[in-house]
Each structure stands twice: as C-alpha cells, then as structure tokens.
Amino acid sequence: MLAFQTHRIDLHELYRELLLGTCGVLTLIAHADAAEKAGGNALIREGLADQAAARDILGPVWGPIREVLDSTPMLPSLEEFAAVDQAIQGCGKHMVAMWQFLRVSACLTNDDQLYVSVS
Question: Across-strand partners of 108?
C-alpha cells in the first residue's frame, strides 16, 4: 500500500500484489496447518487467536476454507472434487470482504476492464 501511496506503483500493480500476497499467505497457512495436523498439534489459527490481524483479517477468510478442507476426503472422487471446487470458489466472498476491510475494492466493468479503487 505504501508503494501505491508514494506513487511507485499504479493501482493495477497494487491489486496484482494484493492477489499474489493473498494467495501466498493462504498457501502458507495451508502448509502450516497440514504440518501441525500431521504432528498432532492444534491448527495455526488456534495458536494465533489472540493476534488481532490473524483473528480479524485472516480468520474470516481462512476459517471457511478450512471448513471445506476438513469436510473433504484426501482423494475426492470427480463428483466430490467438483463440489469442493465450487465450495472453495464460494469462499472468495470472504476474500473480497477482507480486501474491503483493507479499503481496496475491484470489479470488472461492462467491457471486462478491471476497475480498482482504494479509499
């Protein structure tokens, strides 16, 4: 955000970095959760429950994703995979809410152009 505020990157680059950063953080949490679960330990979000950013920003995003993962077999059938894919895509609304909490929003215009705003 600072790079955008100091005009070192434009709005589209900010949004791209936001997408990549979100993907990276969620992937990191998924790997950390898997390692903790394999070791018989509590999941990551339980250990970070007292951290405001983890609780208020990441928690509402990761919680629904974790619920989908917890209800999915290790090797889903093709039909199960399609349902899981839809359920994970449905979690996207939580990411949008997180970005809005961070005061960033984006949408596609009628002609499929990306419109990004920061308030």
Answer: 114
